Amino acid sequence: MTKQPDTAEDDALWAEITKDIRKMPNSELPPSKPVILPEIRPTVNLAAAYRGEKLDDLKTGNTDDMDGSLAKRFKRCDIPVEATLDLHGFREEEARAAVFNFIQNAYLTGRRCVIIITGKGLSHPEDGDMFTVKGKLKESVPLWLNSRELRPLILSFIHPSAKLGGSGALYIMLRRKR
Predict the structure, then answer these.
(1) Distance set, CA 169 to CA 17, 48, 119 (Å)
(2) Alpha helices (H) along 24-164
(3) Which of 149, 154, 148 is nearest to 116 (CA)?
(4) Quick one: how far is CA 10 from the chain centroid?
(5) What are phi and psi of 62, to 5 degrees?
(6) Model pLDDT for residues 60-76, shown as the tens digit of each residue
(7) Full DSSP string of 61-86
(8) CA-CA distance, 154 to 29, in Å (whole number)?
(9) Cα angle vertex 114, ends 173, 49, to 5°?
(10) Strand pairing partners for 158?
(11) Are strands 83-86 and 154-158 parallel, antiparallel or unpaired?
């Protein structure tokens, strides 16, 4: 058998607990529509990302800023890829914004190794030389990686092995987040 609670004691206790509670005036009611706050994007503190002197532009395959064993693993593409950005179908301005957001977000979330797939570019029948560089994004992305905003976040980049995209991709090693 269960015992029924004493309602007189419970009512007295409840009255004591709620004696200072007052109803909110109508002017303080929450709004009927949800409040939409502007998107807050974290910014990268470049001074914290790199504390050295002036950074030279990176060239594809330059691993001078890396220790020997890391550089070897990086060149063999033995470091697991933690994020990928595929730029197929992007226009140049959209691709530029996507690259900047991708690299900064990867750095802020502590990722070290990422890939950007640029594609190899389309060949055109009027191009007589089959050895010329094709593809605007393939040319532009390395320039963007050397920009004032992104260069302090990047240790090195190379074209990965064929299984990861070959010359149509960039395998990028980011600095540790400080």
Answers:
(1) 66, 28, 6
(2) 46-49, 68-75, 92-108, 136-145
(3) 154
(4) 56
(5) -75, 120
(6) 777 777 788 888 888 88
(7) T--TTS-HHHHHHHHTT-SPP-EEEE
(8) 50
(9) 50
(10) 171
(11) unpaired
Is the Cα torsion angle 164, 80, 78, 139 positive or negative in sign?
Answer: positive
Residues 86-128: pLDDT tens digits? Answer: 988 888 899 999 999 999 999 998 999 999 988 887 655 555 5
Contact 118, 90 (CB under 8 A): no
State the DSSP code for 4. P
Residue with tokens 């050895």: 131
User: Alpha-carbon distance 70 to 95, whole Å?
Assistant: 29
pLDDT band of residue 168 (cuts 50, 70, 90) is confident
- List phi, psi (to 5°) of 101: -65, -45
pTM over the 0.90 mark: no
pLDDT in tens, 123-162: 555 555 555 556 788 888 999 988 888 888 888 888 888 8
